[in-house]
Specification:
With 271 residues, this protein is mainly α. It has 11 helices and no strands.
Length: 271
């Protein structure tokens, strides 16, 4: 029995046409094919944007409430009648509580930063020097990047240490201010150091600080008082300075006629 072999070579093979899709068509095709994934991504983006907007709104609300509470605290702190000491103490205690509330309820806000400093000042007014030291130290640790305000806080910290009987710690705080290139209160710190040395009857050291203040910060409002203190503490030194200036001036006056005679003589010779 014979077999017949089928020959397909005679049939022409048909090529399928290649269709090029544009970028837009490819995108639409992808969206159609992955519809669930695309919609999920859209909802996720909307949720993230909504969350950011909500957080910003809450942050502004939080800051506004913190500023409002701080304003009330500052008003209580400043409203201290001179003829009613008891009321003044109560107002300071009320301000302390408000500053603490701001630190607890609104941490990280600009108001909390200022309240941390004002809390230390309030504690100083009530002679709670240990509490003031803690408040000032916390401020320096939490806001070390604010060099200008840190210099002011370290000065207050040094004063709190002094009043608490820790001279060594106070000197370290004052030296930190003097070593801070951004501090704007170095003249006041020099004055504080001079007054401290004067109180401890270290006259030479006090005069040294006063003179440094006058030399480094001649335009400071503390410079004029430093000049007066030098005249009181070291009058002989001040007198020597005056005599030196007078001698220098007389030499200049004496040199002027001689110079004129020499110049006139030289002119006569030339003629």
């Amino acid at each position: 029995m014979g077999y017949k072999i089928k020959d397909n070579s005679s049939k022409s093979t048909e090529m399928e046409p290649v269709v090029a899709l544009s970028s837009k068509e490819q995108f639409l095709f992808f969206v159609e094919e992955h519809r669930g994934l695309v919609w999920g991504g859209i909802f996720l983006v909307i949720a993230v944007i909504g969350g950011i907007i909500t957080l910003n709104w809450l942050s502004h609300q939080k800051q506004d409430k913190a500023w409002e509470l701080e304003g009330q605290a500052q008003q209580a702190f400043l409203d201290r009648p001179l003829d009613d000491i008891e009321k003044g103490k109560k107002n300071i205690q009320q301000a302390e509580e408000m500053f603490r509330d701001i630190l607890e309820q609104y941490p990280g806000t600009p108001s909390a930063k200022i309240s941390s400093f004002l809390l230390g000042n309030s504690l100083m007014e009530t002679e709670n020097y240990e509490g003031a030291i803690q408040a000032y130290t916390s401020f320096v640790q939490d806001h070390a990047q604010d060099h200008v305000l840190v210099g002011l806080v370290q000065q207050r910290l040094g004063l709190a240490y002094l009043l608490n009987g820790n001279r060594e710690a106070a000197m370290s705080a004052f030296e930190a201010v003097m070593g801070n290139p951004h501090a704007l209160n170095k003249d006041q710190v020099l004055f504080e150091l001079a007054k401290l040395a004067e109180f401890e009857e270290k006259t030479d050291e006090a005069v040294k600080y006063y003179k440094q203040l006058m030399q480094d910060f001649p335009l400071s409002p503390f410079s004029s008082e430093a000049n007066l203190r030098v005249k009181v503490l070291a009058p002989e030194s001040e007198q020597e300075s005056v005599e030196t200036e007078a001698t220098t001036g007389s030499r200049v006056d004496q040199a002027t006629p001689e110079t004129q005679e020499d110049s006139s003589g030289e002119e006569g010779k030339k003629e």
